[in-house]
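Let's inspect a concrete specimen:
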Amino acid sequence: MSLNANLIKELREKSGAGIVDCKNALMQNENDIDKSIDWLRKKGLSVAAKKSGRVAAEGLVGVHINNHQACLIEINSETDFVSRNEQFQKFVNDCSKIATTTDGDLDSLLKSKFIESDNTVEDELTKNIATIGENLKIRRIEKITLDGPGSLVSYVHNSVSENLGKIAVILSLKSNANKNSLENIGKKIAMHIAASNPISLNLDGLDPKIVNKEKQVLIEQAISSGKPKDIAEKMVEGRIRKFCEEVVLLEQTFVIDGKTKIKDVLKQYSSELGTEVTIDSFKMLILGQGIEVEEKDFAAEVAATANQ
């Protein structure tokens, strides 16, 4: 089977494994990246469980809250220098405001009218590409809506300007408590989300496929270390519980105090305020997550290794 240098490069970046191990993984799994990552993890050669891919894109993430609508938007540029450009920052801010009026779909945003202009957002994007001198891309949008009493809260990490930065979180809290109290609570939980990167609000919302995949990898690891299959299956039960505690927001340990689960933090706040406080939903964007920058000398390195 022939090996593609770009596939080896991609697998290496996503798994953190060495070139030779990536080459073997692809050969064993018919050039399937996902199967190769699992194969490497089972062999103990990959750190993919903690890594979603190399993050290397530039630009900004913007956030805007408008009454009961909150929106995140990521707009990428070629260099970090552009993120300090006032024209680019204004463009990101304006796009985040417009996005709150759409259904959260990129095509809908691109076709929307720009602020105080007859141009569409797509027209303004093209205009900014020409004037700033770099390729720009509106990559993704996340939006949440608050139905009923409560508050929408945002948090921006590594902020370069108001509502603009490298990581942004929006959070919807449902409660009859006063807005100031909810914003104080929400800001702390949003900071926690930015630090802990949960993938689900609660256990019921966690994709069973993710859990089953993790379970199979852990079982294979135990079997590879010499444990019988029935023992291996029992061993991983505790590790699966720990996995869920790491990726489910309500089960995570609050980073601010380092000991209380988020679900218990909410109970404490509810008791103090005399009314229930719950998290309805949250969204987070990390700038450039999952985008890789080409390494121009890597193909030659892979080609030399593949021919050994």
Observations:
- Residues 210 and 216 are 10 Å apart (CA to CA).
